[in-house]
Amino acid sequence: MSTMDLSPVTSHEIAPQPPTGEGFETAWPIRAGDVDTANRLRYDSVARYLQDIGSDNLDASGLGETDPFWIVRRTIMDIDRPSVWPERITLRRWCSGLSTRWSNMRVDITGDKGAHIRTEGFWISISSTTGMPTRISDEGLALLTRTAGETRLRWKQWLRDPAPESSLTDLAFPLRITDVDAFNHVNNAAYWQAVEEVLARAESGEITGGPHRAVIEYLSPIMAPDHVTLRWRRHDVDGAPAVTVWFMVDDAVRTIACVVARAGASGVSAPLAD
After folding, report:
1. Separation between Cα atoms, residue 94 and residue 17, nearest integer Å
2. Taking residues 117-129, what's their average pLDDT?
3. How far is CA 193 from CA 18, 34, 125, 174, 261, in A?
4. Which of 82, 88, 105, 263 has its CA at a distance of 20 to 30 angstroms from the CA of residue 48?
């Protein structure tokens, strides 16, 4: 196995929870359509949950009026213990860091049967008129700063390795009309379906069978007419087994994802699921 320089993927520590009473909380049951053949909550389902609680949070806080449009640039999922259906989960969302145009939004997912998933998303506020990053409103900054441990947040790309050469392991990933949002972009949750597809072929049990981290960085949007090819390879990150996936359109990298094993997380050392 080759070793890739992905140290931020393993070294980054996501922020702890804020004080009791801060943030936004909701709950719902895991649905049968959100799980894989082992009844484990899929990555794309987690991604949709992050979108759903984000929308609910905007509505409940009033920021749906002042700061309604956001796009995600990076998502981190620390799967300490996955949700396995049937289970009822609680989701708690808050801001852990921000600047004037973007923020790190944390969501913790816990379940009544032991699920423990910690996530962090780098979200950019977008102007409804220009489609470009825009300043967060004064109301938004006041609300988000209440829980933010960092107020000078900067973007730094973690996944920078060039895509490997084309090979027989390449996978075509046909887009469906249901993968596309109102902006004609592929919805961010659909990318995680591709990650699931690769992991199923990569004999990734040693990675996903215990605590692990999944990271995706959206570098430029994939549009409805695009033809997507997935390139991937197994490798090590700081001695831990990993799989990286490159989303290719016309031999250009649009998005990169990496899933890497973690040797114990938040006191969880037992296998994640039977």
Report:
1. 8
2. 96
3. 31, 11, 25, 11, 19
4. 263
- Give residue-wise pLDDT tens across range 160-171: 999 999 999 999
User: 264, 75 in Cβ contact below 8 A?
Assistant: no
The one-letter amino acid code at 195 reads V
Q: CA dist 23 to 72, 94, 233, Å?
A: 19, 5, 38
Residue 56 CB contacts under 8 Å (≥ 6 apart), including other chains: 24, 26
The mean pLDDT of 28-51, rounded to a whole number, is 97
Instruction: Please determine, for residue 265, whether its predicted confidence score (pLDDT) is greater than 50.
Output: no
Segments in the chain forming alpha helices (H): 7-11, 43-61, 63-66, 138-145, 188-201, 205-208
The pLDDT value recorded for residue 246 is: 98
Distance (Å) of CA 188 to CA 86, 156, 161: 25, 19, 21
Alpha carbons 116 and 136: distance in angstroms, whole number: 31
DSSP string for 175-189: --GGGB-TTSBBPHH
- Residue 149 — pLDDT band, cuts 50, 70, 90? very high
Please report, as a single letter, which amino acid is at residue 89: I
Give yes or no for a contact between 146 and 22, defined as CB atoms under 8 angstroms apart. Answer: yes
Q: What is the pLDDT at residue 5?
A: 53
26 pLDDT above the threshold of 50: yes
Note whether 135 and 125 are within 8 A (CB).
yes
Q: Please compute the mean of the pLDDT values over residues 132-143 and round it to a whole number.
A: 97
- Rounded CA-CA distance 134/128 in Å is 9
- Six-digit token string for 199: 């992991």
Distance separating alpha carbons of residues 120 and 205, to the nearest angstrom: 24
Q: CA-CA distance, 53 to 175, in Å (whole number)?
A: 25
Task: Indicate the pLDDT class of residue 186, thresholds 50, 70 and 90.
Answer: very high
Q: How far apart are CA 78 and CA 222, in angstroms?
A: 25
